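Hey, weird one. I pasted the Endonuclease-reverse transcriptase sequence into the form twice and got a warning about non-standard characters only the second time. First submission, copied straight from the form history:
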Amino acid sequence: MTDALEDHCGTVSIGGRPITNLRFADDIDGLAGNECELASLVEQLDKASSNFGMEISAEKTKIMTNSKEPAKKEIKVNGQIL
């Protein structure tokens, strides 16, 4: 996953340091400042996973926002909308 996250330039920062993900055991929480950035991050993770014969489960994957407005962009994994 380091391959996918290495080229991702996120806009979320804490103390001036960009934060693109939080990892714990076999879970990854991707952080993005907007929907396009999140879609790009998910796409990069999906491509990197498939390079190693792994697959992101769309059924287990969740999108959470910090906005009162619903998401406008469809984010897909393996052809399934999250």
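That's the output from the first submission. The warning seems to come from a hidden character in my clipboard, not from the data itself. The beta strands are 13-14, 17-18, 21-24, 27-30, 76-77, 80-81.
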